[in-house]
Amino acid sequence: MNQINIKVNGEPFTVSKDESLETLLLSYQVNLNSVALVRGGQVVPKTLWAITPCEADDEIELFGVVAGG
Amino acid sequence: MSLNDEQFIHYSRQILLPELGEYGQTALMSAHVAIVGIGGLGNLCAQYLAAAGVGRLTLIDGDSVEVSNLPRQLIFAARDSGKNKAKVCADKLRAVYADCDLIAADCFIDNANASLLLKDASLVLDCSDNFETRQLINLCCVRDSIPSVIASAVHFSGQLLTVDLVRYPQGGCYHCLFPCELKVSQRCSTTGVLGPMVGVMASMQALQAIKHIAKITPNAGELLRFDGLSMVTRHATLARDPSCAVCHTKVKERTDESN
Ligand SMILES: [Zn+2]
Q1: What InterPro entries would the database entry show (chain A) (predicted)?
Q2: For residue A1, what pLDDT is reported?
Q3: A·B CB contacts under 8 A
Q4: What 3-state class would DSSP assign to B56?
Q5: Which residues of B carry out catalysis?
Q6: How far is A4 from chain B (nearest CA, A)?
Q7: Residue B62 counted as domain residue
């Protein structure tokens, strides 16, 4: 099997090779409308998640919007 | 605009900074900053910017002071309860900072009044307290080509970014990062927040604003997240969403203009 190891918010996670960021979020059981995504220190806009594949050793950060002040 | 002797002494500790100098101080004195939301973030940003010598501040808030605001909205006192936040803040700052022209707008920003309220502003500080207002401010700033410094704080989480499609088109806008369909789970009124947590974010927002005005390496195009529990700060490079409903046409216009 073509499995690759990545990290999501610092925790190890395994996904299939060529899995998209969107598929990753779904298998991570995250509502797509609840987070922003940073991959390797770079924001990936939501419209690109479905067409951006995960790569080995990716460090993914997921976080919600903070709107208060 | 040039500095008189009195101003030179008054702002000497700022002018001493080689990054700021007389150029930066003059830029501050010529700047017009609109602050949307005079709550936890906004009252502190207003104080810092007025004290730094920003020439004109427009303070926008339709809300009134409540006693539950006092632990983090340091400019207000119990006797201000029930009075409009923008007006009270403007009155108090006017009495202390003679170089700053203070305008108070005692209304909430909305689709109909936004362009008028932000008219002539050279920079907008988004100090608002809800996602819908943040989207509206972004929309107006992108449409009217006004850069914005955006900060937020709830619980022990803070976020800070600068949107400037002229200087940093590749960073995109607020909507590129947080599209409007996003669901927000936490609010100050329901989750709680500490005064210094808001203070950290407000200080960073005011610092970014001053640097932006003085054109000092402004980290535009970068998102900063601060965790007040672990005290960890994380940085990420912002990326424009090529199909962003808000800034797509604006960035296209700019590219067409420069071609
Ligand atoms: Zn955008």
Answers
A1: Beta-grasp_dom_sf, Mopterin_synth/thiamin_S_b, Thi_S, ThiS/MoaD-like
A2: 61
A3: 96
A4: strand
A5: 188
A6: 24
A7: yes
The DSSP result for B77-143, as a single string, is -GGGTTSBHHHHHHHHHHHH-TT-EEEEE-S---TTTHHHHTTT-SEEEE--SSHHHHHHHHHHHHH
Q: Is residue B178 part of a domain?
A: yes
CATH code for the domain of B184: 3.40.50.720
B176 within domain boundaries: yes
CB contacts, 8 Å: A33 with chain B: 181-183
In a domain, B1, yes or no: no
Is A62 within 8 Å of chain B by CB?
A: no
pLDDT tens digits for range A20-37: 999 999 998 999 999 999
Cross-chain residue pair A61–B236, CB shorter than 8 Å: yes
Q: What total number of domains does chain B contain? A: 1
In chain A, % helix, strand, coil (3-state, to 5) comes to 20, 35, 45
Chain centre distance of CA B4: 28
How many angstroms away from the CA of A56 is the closest CA of chain B?
20
Whole-prediction pTM value?
Answer: 0.95
Report the CATH number of the A3-64 domain. Answer: 3.10.20.30
* Residues of the domain holding B218: 31-258
* Cα–Cα nearest to A69, from B118, B107, B225, B189: B189
